[in-house]
Write a structure and sequence with these properties.
Length: 270
């Protein structure tokens, strides 16, 4: 009796309350189970307002990439052009990203976690179609200097850029830093965990991004924050994370990168 009563109470909640509860679920949970609970829940789950933010977080089951991608196409369709925020984890292709961009011109936030099926060309082509993007996060997905430049020039409103990598400790390259400095003048928040930039690249970022308030340089082992450069960072940046600062508050794996790649593996990123 108690179980039946509890179920009835859940179903009798006002639609706006039910929508608020369902919105806390990820898109995968909604499409695979929640919407099938009853006709009322299915109606709510089809409302475009439920799909202004799409969270495709998952446990990284690679054998389900096709299923998750198909769900994502469907979720984007349900937004009817009102999508503002999307998070994709462990799957995704150029076709999917372009589909999102073409149907979500007002997209403001895009997060790509371990989306190795998305290429430089695909990312560049998609960002050309989302000029209102304000926040972009890429984790463990190497992209070229040219792609970073395209992102910066195509998205002039970009205020937050998180480009976090897992590379070997000896990797050194200022290409991405220089591209950021040259094309992202409105940045307020920049996270470059594991990047290979040097002091030269950091100087360029400080010159090219005058509004920067947050700068995360954890595990950027080629940066040496000493002397005038350290003073400039401390005076300019309200929240500065040093290369040697701990990463325990970072939600994903961020161990010493020597444990992830052999030095010979780094050649592919040169």
């Amino acid at each position: 009796m108690g179980d039946a009563s509890d179920a009835r109470n859940w179903l009798e909640l006002p639609p706006d309350v039910t929508a608020s509860i369902l919105s806390r679920l990820g898109a995968i949970e909604i499409l695979s189970s929640a919407q099938d609970v009853c006709s009322q829940w299915r109606k709510i789950c089809k409302d475009p307002s439920m799909w202004r933010s799409i969270d495709m977080r998952n446990s990284g089951e690679w054998d389900k990439d096709y299923v998750h991608e198909k769900m994502c196409f469907h979720a984007v369709d349900r937004s009817f052009g009102h999508l503002l925020d999307i998070n994709i984890e462990y799957f995704g292709t150029d076709d999917l990203l372009l589909y999102i961009a073409e149907r979500s011109v007002h997209l403001k936030r895009l997060r790509l976690f371990s989306c190795f099926g998305i290429s430089d060309e695909g990312l560049s082509e998609a960002t050309l179609k989302i000029p209102f993007l304000e926040e972009l996060e890429i984790f463990i997905g190497p992209i070229s200097k040219r792609a970073v430049e395209t992102i910066g020039r195509s998205c002039p409103l970009l205020k937050s850029f998180k480009y976090n990598l897992q590379r070997c400790k000896g990797y050194v390259c200022d290409d991405e830093a220089l591209a950021i400095a040259q094309t992202m003048p409105e940045l307020r928040h920049l996270q470059l965990l594991g990047n290979g930039l040097t002091n030269e690249g950091l100087q360029a970022i400080l010159d090219g991004c005058p509004h920067l308030e947050y700068l995360d340089l954890r595990q950027c082992f080629s940066v040496r924050l000493v002397g005038n450069l350290e003073k400039r960072c401390v005076e300019r940046i309200k929240n500065l994370r040093h290369p040697s600062d701990p990463t325990h508050d970072f939600k994903f794996v961020a161990e010493d990168l020597d444990t992830w790649y052999n030095p010979s593996d780094c050649d592919e990123y040169d």
